[in-house]
Known about the structure:
The protein is an alpha+beta fold. The protein contains 9 helices and 13 strands.
Amino acid sequence: MNTDIERYIQELLYEHDCVIIPGFGGFIGNYSPAKINPVYNTFYPPCKSLLFNIHLKQNDGLLASRIAQAENIPYEHALDLIRVMLVDWNRELENGQEVVIEKVGKIVRESNGLLQFEQDNSINYLPEAFGLTSLVSPAIQRQGWQDERKNKPGKVANTLKWAAVMALPIGLAAFLSLSNLDQIRSIQQNYTGLFFSKTVPVVKRVAESPTVILPLKKSAQSLQKIADQGQTVTSNAKSNVVKSEVRETSSTSDTKPYAIIVGAFRFRENADNMVDKLKQEGYDGEIIDITTTGLFRVSTGSYTSRDEAIRQLAAVRSDNYSSAWLLNK
């Protein structure tokens, strides 16, 4: 009858993760993933590893109910059959023998009185791995590659040497780039106009000195007087232009402190061309200010709210102005 009870234990281990033998102990099943043995090149499928816990002695009714149902006997009679089986197991353990549970494992009593369980790995109680067996895959021998490496022992060493030599300057360049990131961004913002040749035609202006055509009979004193007048008029005109631009910018910055910059140009003609292009595309293009380095910064518009400016910046960047940035005036 012990053999039949062992068969019922096997069936329950397929269906449950815990099977208790009343008054003796319980088997606990844990999921174990697939494994590879690199020494023997063996692949093992996932399985249910079994542990034995001597403290799980309380009857949960699972084993006795299965025996009573399968043998068509009363529940109490099934418990009596389990008790008879345990008498035989305990006698064998006291005599120093092994208790072998077919297709489950073996239990032995150590010198300190504790029970030691060793699972029978020939049976996989994981239903998801039904039909899967271990697989042995011989190691791949790359004889040709090994021969080539033996014939050229210095090639790998030279490659590693040059890699070590190049690692120092590359790492230093990366460190300097990261440490000066803010300066690089500042240069990019201030000199955007110098690299904007794809969208706005660049007009190069050569500074020319004013030419005054006078009759040949004019005296040197008259020439000097006319030159002084020309310089005065020119300086007054320049000051008026700068003052008007600064006055317009200051009045705008008071009410709308945020602007979206799409370019900064060295020459005024280029900035004006950019403004015309923006107006044709539906933007409120304007020259927003002049930087301390003499660049004319062109904006698509000014805004009173930072949130609104950020939303418009995203739209401008998606409209072929990926280098646009936000200026807080």
